[in-house]
UniProtKB/TrEMBL annotation:
Protein's recorded name: Gas vesicle synthesis protein GvpLGvpF
Any single GO BP term: gas vesicle organization
A GO cellular-component term linked to this record: gas vesicle
PANTHER family: PROTEIN GVPL 2
Predominant localisation class: other
One Pfam family matching this protein: GvpL_GvpF
InterPro entries linked to this entry: GvpL/GvpF (IPR009430)
Compartments where located: Gas vesicle
Family, as annotated: Belongs to the gas vesicle GvpF/GvpL family.
Organism: Natrinema altunense (strain JCM 12890 / CGMCC 1.3731 / AJ2)
Domain of life the protein comes from: Archaea
Keywords: Gas vesicle
Coiled coil stretches, renumbered: none
């Protein structure tokens, strides 16, 4: 019997579509318990290897879920969540139900956007001034933001922003304006993503 690979948790049980899914699966569907649904595909292991291809498919499926039926709130799971049976998965939904509900309320109607500001090679920049300018420009638009690792000396800012769908265009314009105003930094703008950085629901096949 196939195991279940989980992409995220939604309200209800209506998400179902054909797509290129993790580990060669071609369909995702919902396993539900008391109005919560885990969106899954079939997989032959509970310990999937995280290849670049499957990591990308995981993210792409989450985007498709977010776009499903005119817009669906999904609490995203990190890559690698797989369960041996529907019963085990429903037990997780039952046990983490309050946490999933809180997460859904927190991220309803939002997306995650990523922004990196990278200094031009050999540029003499005022890092604090650029950080302050970015905060003034982006923080008022976002509902929340979190700092990510500055993994390079040239990386001035690396943040994820939780932005309401109806503020997306405003945020896009703010990024474009910031880029036009700062010739000394390279702007790397990514998304939308499911709001990984803004949910904290701890689950696992082994409890």
């Amino acid at each position: 019997m196939s195991n279940r690979y989980v992409y995220g948790v939604v309200e209800g049980d209506t998400v179902e579509f054909e797509t290129e899914a993790v580990a060669g699966a071609d369909r995702v569907y919902t396993i539900s318990h008391r109005r919560l649904g885990a969106v899954v595909s079939d997989i032959d292991t509970t310990d999937p290897e995280e290849t670049d291809e499957d990591a990308q498919r995981h993210d792409e499926v989450l985007r498709e879920i977010m776009d499903d039926d005119g817009g669906t709130t999904v609490v995203p799971m990190q890559f690698g969540m797989a369960f041996e049976s529907d019963r085990e998965l429903k037990n997780v939904l039952r046990g983490a139900r309050p946490a999933f509900r809180r997460a859904m309320n927190d991220i309803d109607g939002t997306v995650e956007l990523g922004l990196k500001l990278v200094s031009e090679a050999d540029a003499d920049i005022d890092r604090e001034a650029i950080e302050a300018a970015a905060a003034d420009r982006f923080e008022p638009i976002a509902d929340q933001s979190v700092t990510n690792d500055l993994f390079s000396d040239r990386l001035v800012l690396n943040r994820s922003y939780l932005v309401a769908e109806d503020e997306r265009e405003t945020f896009d314009e703010a990024v474009a304006d910031f880029e036009a105003d700062h010739d000394d930094v390279i702007v790397q703008y990514t998304g939308p993503f499911a709001p990984y950085s803004f949910v904290d629901v701890k689950i696992g096949a082994q409890q």
